[in-house]
Amino acid sequence: MPASAVDEALADASADDLAVLLIAYRKGVAVGCAGLRRAEARTGEITTMYVSPPARRLGAGRLDAPGQDDRMAHSHDTVDWAEMGPDLIADAEVNAPMVDQALGWLAERVPQAGLVLDVGSGPGVAAARFAQLLPGATVLAADGAAPLLALARERAQRLGLDDRIATREVKLPAGLADLPRADLIWVSGVAHHLPDPAAGVRAFADLLRPAGVLALREGGLPLQCLPAEADGGLTARINAVDIALARDHAHPMGAIIAPRSWPELLAEAGLTGIESRSFLLDLPAPLPEAPRRHLARMLRHTRELLTGHLPADDLARLDVLTDPDHPESVLHRADVFMLRAATIHTAVRA
Ligand SMILES: C[S@@+](CC[C@H](N)C(=O)[O-])C[C@H]1O[C@@H](n2cnc3c(N)ncnc32)[C@H](O)[C@@H]1O
């Protein structure tokens, strides 16, 4: 949004009134702002709000004041997960050769599981896999985005698993207290979105039944997709920016760096038998069509999210790599591949 538009919209506001300027982002792009004035101790008042014209009527100006209480403003209120169903499904399907190994390893550790919790399940791809791997278990997929849970239910029905997969809309971390205790708790790509990851891990640990296993999918090795010469250091620069934004709690996806390592947080939560294992995704060139398309979408998403943070040359390179009409695009080039690792940190309730 041009600064002049903001200036114009706020022209009538008294500068003395504006104690804090809140900026609203949609998919990493600033779409509006609001001035917040201190009214009295612990109370603020929204004085002026501006929503850029393209973002109007999309709910950017809707305030969820009670939602601020449980500090979810950090991630769930700034990232529209509900819109990401197709991307989360494509991501899970492309990564299935890696994640399925991890899920198989976990299922073998709790063969008698009665209840599996998939916290932050998204569209329920892992929940369905657990239901297939553990025929004696019921799986509860819990997430804050109702449209993703609807996709999870559709998937369960399509696979004939709907009698053993349930869904529950929960807002983390507050909603954890209402979830049932489980023999296996799978938390994939979610803990680093919580405002206080250490408290989050303690809350997950409290949901374990005796001998139950908590598994956090966090970290590993970032995706490589081009030979060094073609990559030219782009991947490393993107990773460095990602980490810096997460460290500064400024990441557009709400990611943060946990205060200590995940195994340390598991130990602090009173769990034992802590073990970390990494699983590889190795899709060599020539890359099939579906992962190619997903890779191009991921790179475009990265370009949108990091527009204000990467040098112009890198943004231009990302444009080339994702341009369907450019021969150097990852959609066409012969040398593109996908290589990455996912680390699963596990621990047991004694
Ligand atoms: C990166 S996705 C991971 C989805 C899935 N677990 C996977 O590995 O593909 C993060 C998921 O966590 C959910 N989520 C993030 N923050 C949340 C919160 N505060 N409350 C409830 N759900 C949340 C999102 O809706 C989304 O489905």
Note down, in words, how this protein is organized.
It is a single chain. Helices cover about 35% and strands about 25% of the residues. The model is unreliable at about 1-5, about 40-45 and about 60-75 (pLDDT under 50). The protein is α/β, with parallel strands linked by helices and about 350 residues long. The chain folds into two domains: about 5-65, no CATH class; about 85-350, Rossmann fold, CATH 3.40.50.150. The chain is built from twelve helices and ten strands. The radius of gyration is 22 Å and the shape is globular. The longest helix is centred in the C-terminal third of the chain and has 17 residues, at about 290-305. Helix 6 (about 145-160) links the parallel strand 5 (about 140-145) and strand 6. The strands form two sheets. Strands 6-5-4-7-8-10-9 form a seven-stranded mixed β-sheet, with helices on both faces. A three-stranded antiparallel β-sheet has the order 1-2-3, with no helix packed on it. The structure holds S-adenosylmethionine (SAM). S-adenosylmethionine (SAM) binds next to helix 3.
Can you write the helix and strand succession as a string? HEEEHHHEHEHEEHEHHHEHHE
Span between termini: 54 Å
Total helical elements: 12
CATH class of the largest domain: Alpha Beta
Alpha-beta classification: alpha/beta
Low-confidence stretches: 1-7, 39-43, 61-74
Spatial arrangement of strands, main beta sheet? 6-5-4-7-8-10-9
The second-level CATH architecture of the largest domain is: 3-Layer(aba) Sandwich
CATH superfamily of the largest domain: Vaccinia Virus protein VP39
Major sheet attributes: 7 strands, mixed
Distinct small-molecule ligands in the complex: S-adenosylmethionine
Could you name the CATH topology of the largest domain? Rossmann fold
- Output mean pLDDT: 87
Strand content: 25-35%
Helix content: 25-40%
The count of β-strands is 10
Please tell me the total number of domains: 2
Integer-rounded radius of gyration: 22 Å
Which term fits the overall shape? globular
